[in-house]
Each structure stands twice: as C-alpha cells, then as structure tokens.
Amino acid sequence: MFEDATFESSNRIKSKSKYWMIVTTILCGSVIGVMVLIPLIYPEALPKQAMATLLVAPPPPPPPPPPPPPEVHQVIVKPQMMNNQLTAPTRIPKQIKMVAEKEAPPSAGFGVAGGMGGGDGAPGGVIGSLFGSASSAPVVKAAPPKKIAISQGVAQGMLMEKVNPIYPAIAKAARMQGTVVLQATISKTGTIQNLRVISGPAMLQQSALQAVSRWRYRPYLLNGEPVEVETTVNVVFSLGG
Q1: Which residues contact 165 (CB under 8 A, 6 or more apart)?
Q2: Which of 216, 222, 207 is nearest to 186 (CA)?
Q3: For residue 185, what pLDDT is reported?
Q4: Handedness of CA 226, 228, 229, 232 (dihedral sign)
Q5: Model-level pTM?
Q6: Could you report the per-residue pLDDT of 129-158, keeping only the tens digit for each?
Q7: What are the angstrom distances between the C-alpha of 28 and each of 25, 86, 117, 150?
Q8: What gap in Å lies between CA 241 and CA 165, rounded to an integer?
C-alpha cells in the first residue's frame, strides 16, 4: 500500500475522473443548447417588455427652438412746418363771422373805340372779330382706323354668300374629321384677303382655304364709312353631315 502511494503504481490504481468529466461536459452542453433553442422555438417565452425595448427605435431628438423674432424699431416721424407758419389756434373763437365778397362790376365791351369793329366803340372790335373767326373755323374729323378686329359672331352676321367646303376623299377614307381655324381680313368691299391657317387637321386645311376664299361679307361700317376688319373663321368637317 505504501508502495502504491509513494512510488509508481504501474497502472494498478484505476480512477473514474475522466468519465465524470465527459458526462459533466455533455450535461452542461445540453443545458446550454436547451437555453439557446427555447427562445428560438418559443419566442413568446421571452419577456415582452425587454423585446419591445430592443425593437423600438429611440425617439428622434427634439427640434431646435425657433429663432427669435426680429426686432422692430418704430420710428415716429414728427411733422415739420416751414418756418413754423402753420400753427394750431390757442383758443376756439365764440363767434364766426362770414365775410361776403363784393360782386365784381360789370365788364365793359372788349371793343376798341374807333377800331376795326365800329367807329362808336361798340363791343365787337378787334377781339370780337377774332372770336368770330374762331367760331367759324371748319371742324376736323378724326380719320377712321385702317383695320379693326371683330369677333366671329359679328362676322357671321355680316356673311352674305357662303360656299361649303368639299370633303377630301383621302380624309373621308381615313375617317378624319375636325375643325380648321382660319384668320382672315374682310376688305372694305366684303371680300376675303390675307387668309391663313391657324390650326386644324392637315388633310382638311386646303379644302377649307378654297371654300372660305370665295365667301362674301357685307362691308363693316364705322361712323358711316367702310373699314377693313380682322376676324377668325371656323370650318367644321364632320362625317355625320
């Protein structure tokens, strides 16, 4: 026995410590694995308050305070008078007197005695003759404008002769319809001048120009005199008639 304790026992003493260490390692690993797997399998087992604290984003920082309002400097402007000529009355008068102006004496004639108007100095001398010649001067009338603009409705009422446009065969085959807007000048005799296209389908424009160029209008009178007018004309192309 002493030999076994002090000297080499030649593997005669057998110990079970390595088996206990293996069992303990397996047991600890199992416990740790269970603790890790339980939250993954059953997430409701975790504390909700701690999860909410981890998942909720922190509140944003408060906005900066608004800048202070700008300072307003009030400037009081006092009225200044020229040489202190206008001053307020020191006391209110008890009676106010109305001063009536005297009527002006009747004016004498503007004629000159012995002048060109008459030998007795009666009114109507040189000055009278000047005023008389001014009153007999001819009245000058303003010249009417060369061209004015009228609306399409007014021009429609002046229309005397209308030629309907021919529906182009290519536009009819393509089932194309629409409105061609033209700008025209009606002369003093009622004929169409300066006819041009403003908008509308390209296939229908030429037919509209040919038809409107042959329209005739009643002359537009301004102060009893015919003048040229500028207006717009709408030509409607419809497959239904």
Answers
A1: 204, 207, 208, 210, 211, 212, 235, 237
A2: 216
A3: 93
A4: positive
A5: 0.42
A6: 444 444 556 666 666 567 789 898 998 899
A7: 5, 110, 148, 104
A8: 12
